[in-house]
Design goal:
The complex is a heterodimer of chains A (99) and B (314). With 99 residues, chain A is of the alpha+beta class. Chain A contains two helices and three strands. In chain A, strand 1 and strand 2 form a beta hairpin. The radius of gyration of chain A is 21 Å and the shape is elongated. In chain B, helix 4 runs antiparallel to helix 7 and helix 6 runs parallel beside helix 8. The relative contact order of chain B is 0.11. The complex binds fe (ii) ion (FE2) (2 copies).
Chain lengths: 99, 314
Amino acid sequence: MSDNTENDQGKLWEVFIQSKPGIPHKHAGSVHAHDAEMALAGARDVYTRRREGTSIWVVPSEMITATTEQDADSFFDPADDKAYRHPTFYTIPEGVKYL
Amino acid sequence: MDTAEREKKFQEKIDSGLKVEAKEWMPENYRKQLTRMISQHAHSEIVGMLPEGNWITRAPSLRRKAVLLAKVQDEAGHGLYLYSAAETLGIDRKTMIDQLLSGRAKYSSIFNYPTLSWADIGAIGWLVDGAAIVNQTMLARGSYGPYSRAMVRICKEESFHNRQGYEIMYHLANGTPEQKAMAQDALNRWWWPSIQMLGPSDAQSKNSEETMRWKIKVESNDTVRQRFIDRTVPQAHAAGLTIPDPDLKFNEETGHWEIGEIEWTEFYRVIKGHGPCNRKRLKARQEAEREGRWVREAAAAYAAKQRARAVQAA
Ligand SMILES: [Fe+2]
Ligand SMILES: [Fe+2]
């Protein structure tokens, strides 16, 4: 995920693979390609030689925005004091079912 | 936070078994050592295609040819996964390729030996990939996420490489006397380089304290080597082949096979560029780079044209 300047290796694309129907796409790695079509073909050859996938997404690496390690604590801490978002927060009278 | 404090936190993270991810803070030397290690590993996969590629057109049957093609293609894939893992540390793939082509980068010195007969293809799959599996299974437990995940993917594919190689050796070893001699000769030539491939002995190995503390490696070279030996010696015996080591013996107490002295001068000679094929391997890579250039240029030109058309249409 270095700089994305296009030298003769092409741009960097991140590859996401769905390994079987019904489950989410998961990051597999990256490929170099000059365009999206080439990135898909490259991803197929590099990451799915044994039917590891039913579907592939390729995304230019530069298009991904991510949280950073430094900010992660403050970014996620609004969730810390909201225990009432979990079912275990609530007391249910004994004998009451299906709750 | 100052550097000392960050390093302390980093070490705590490693000690607690967490993986380090690309964008997270890491000591400069952690980044440097991993970049070196992963890029060397990537180069080894790419150069490693050459000795085996030598036999694709001369494989003894269509089955063997299809298998060898698939195996060599896997190695290309391994090289690419690894370049991609190295790039997460901030180095560009072009830079790594330039380092390889200019002779500045190292790759596994075992690929500087020639493949003289078909049996060598068996010996490589069985021994070289066998040693690689033991090493890579260890590396899969390492602390850097992208490298460790690439190792998991690679290990899944290696077991086919290992088995197809052993199958070739086993068949030859149980064939005509000439075929058996060919298998034995290949084992004689590939055994010691495979043993050495797992790196200098712990006593001579630099960097090992830090790489172990940071869990770049989780086991020492000698530990990994011993595991490879213990797995492989009985496989040789099952095929009726002899390990070329008069000092080899089984230690009943420890349950390990003990080997004779390793000839390290030879290993360092090959690393320094004086192996039988160092120059040939580099030349082959440089030629491939040159001959493939027009393809990369055409792809770039086509993509630029498509982009220009899209702009015009908008
Ligand atoms: Fe490999
Ligand atoms: Fe392999």
